[in-house]
Write a structure and sequence with these properties.
- The protein is globular.
- With 238 residues, it is of the alpha/beta class.
- α7 runs antiparallel to α8.
- It has two domains: 190 residues, Spore Coat Polysaccharide Biosynthesis Protein SpsA, Chain A (Alpha-Beta Complex); 40 residues.
- The longest helix is centred in the C-terminal third of the chain and has 16 residues.
- The protein has an eight-stranded mixed β-sheet, with helices on both faces.
- The protein contains eight helices and eight strands; from the N terminus they run βαββαββαβαβααβαα.
- β1, α1 and β2 form a beta-alpha-beta unit.
């Protein structure tokens, strides 16, 4: 790569071959006017054929040696060359203006930011959920909103906390706010997969999410949060 990329997109993934086959060429297609870097961080126990996807020279696959999404994203960030880091889930499709939107926000003085999103579903309850992602609220900072951040700022705040087994996205956002970093929620919407709602009720999943956020804000340990999360998974899908 002859010039430093403007943006490094870091994609933590666990058995996401089908989504990656769609996402990676799409990111390449919408990046035509920007120099970008794509880094797919496969989980330590990834067992599908994701790394066999042919991506020529526009993406790199990293097989992570530590478990946990925070560790995956930190390992990807350590290899990133971009001035801006964007942490994108494999089942989230960004808008065509994705790269330009981030660069414009940073150029206008933001240290970091997030995107609003909508689900790939017409269910009205999910539309209601996504409506509130346009503004700062109790659920702001979740991984589906794709944190983007200046590379040097990410290093200064210490990256993701790898001891935070879940809620790592909310934890780093808490530090962003405590340091009074300037952030913005961009209105151009990501498209988020609604697959987790296919086999569980809307109310159960949202109750679980709300309880975890409240417990996180009250200072419960990462281990306790993980225990409650795992029990709620059984509750939601049975």
């Amino acid at each position: 790569m002859s010039k430093r990329p403007a943006v490094s997109v870091i994609i933590p993934a666990h058995n996401e071959e089908q989504n990656l086959r769609k996402l990676l060429p799409y990111l390449q297609d919408i990046s035509t006017s920007h120099i970008v870097q794509l880094i797919v961080c496969l989980s330590a126990d990834n067992s599908d054929e994701s790394s066999s996807i042919e991506v020529a020279d526009y993406a790199r696959f990293l097989h992570c040696d530590q478990k946990g999404r925070a560790a995956q994203m930190n390992q990807g960030a350590a290899l990133a060359e971009g001035n801006i880091l964007a942490f994108l889930h494999a089942d989230v499709l960004p808008p065509q203006t994705f790269f330009g939107d981030m660069l414009e926000a940073i150029d206008h003085g933001c240290d970091c930011g997030f995107f609003a999103y909508r689900f790939d579903s017409d269910r009205w309850l999910l539309k209601a959920n996504s409506y509130f992602t346009r503004w700062d609220g109790i659920f702001t900072g979740g991984g589906d909103q794709c944190l983007f951040i200046r590379q040097h700022t990410f290093e200064e705040i210490g990256g993701f906390d790898e001891s935070q087994i879940i809620m790592e996205d909310f934890e780093i956002f808490r530090r962003i706010k405590r340091r009074k970093l300037k952030y913005k929620i961009l209105p151009s919407q990501l498209i988020v997969s609604a697959r987790k709602y296919d086999h569980a009720s809307y109310m159960k999943i949202n109750l679980c999410n709300l309880l975890l956020v409240i417990m996180f804000r009250l200072g419960y340990s990462a281990q306790r949060l993980r225990s409650v999360h795992d029990r709620f998974l059984k509750f939601c899908y049975h």
